[in-house]
Design goal:
Blueprint (H helix, E strand, L loop, with lengths): L8 E6 L2 H11 L4 E7 L2 E7 L5 E6 L24 E5 L2 H13 L8 E2 L3 E7 L5 E7 L51 H4 L9
Parallel strand pairs: 1-4, 5-8
Antiparallel strand pairs: 2-3, 3-4, 6-7, 7-8
Length: 198
């Protein structure tokens, strides 16, 4: 089975990369580790952890999204509610709360969710963000907990993946037929740009 190692990157959008850098790098302390740019386009990456990155596209005309409370129901087309970043200690959570408050950003009180303690805020693009500290001794990854009063039949199948639900791969790509093509960012490391070949 495939072994995932985290969120490689979560990509968002901004109309003001400088404000975004000031918030994510300078206020929250996430290192700016890569950047691409050309007229009308920038794509920058911030380091969340040794496995996880946060990315932003900057395009002309992008405006901050309408503010929406974390987890509040909506109707109509919708894809994203909020993102939660894990922190190592409860002290980290309080430090973030104080930094956000001192910088003039709205930040919630610390909320106890049983398995995590969290604070909620918004970045300069009005992206709803959460910061969470995992409560010691409670590990939902090792001991899943479901308290849905009306779970669906699919939910009742349990936490483990059902590998026989989807069609099997009929013909895996042989190693000698595998090709990797340059995309945006390859010029940072290989000198090749999207559409160029070696």
């Amino acid at each position: 089975m495939i072994k995932f190692n985290g969120v490689n990157h979560l990509a968002m959008a901004t109309g003001d990369m400088d404000k975004t850098i000031r918030f994510w790098r300078d206020l929250l302390g996430m290192r700016l580790v890569a950047g691409l740019g050309s007229p009308g386009y920038r794509h920058y990456f911030f380091e969340i952890s040794e496995h996880d990155l946060l990315a932003f596209f900057e395009w002309p005309g992008v405006e901050p999204i309408a503010e929406k409370d974390h987890g509040a129901p909506v109707s109509g087309p919708f894809a994203f509610d909020h993102v939660s970043f894990g922190v190592e200690t409860e002290e980290d959570l309080w430090e973030l709360k104080e930094k956000l408050d001192s910088a003039g950003f709205w930040v919630s009180e610390v909320v106890d969710h049983g398995f995590i303690h969290s604070i909620y805020s918004f970045d300069p693009n009005n992206i709803p963000i959460e910061f969470s500290y995992s409560v010691g001794g409670i590990e939902i990854r090792k001991n899943p907990a479901m308290r849905d009063k009306k779970p669906s039949a699919v939910t009742l199948e349990g936490p483990e993946p059902r590998l026989n639900i989807w069609p099997s791969v009929e013909r895996p790509t042989p190693v000698d037929e595998r090709r990797v093509y340059p995309g945006a960012g390859s010029e940072l490391f290989h000198g090749l740009k999207k559409g160029e070949t070696a």
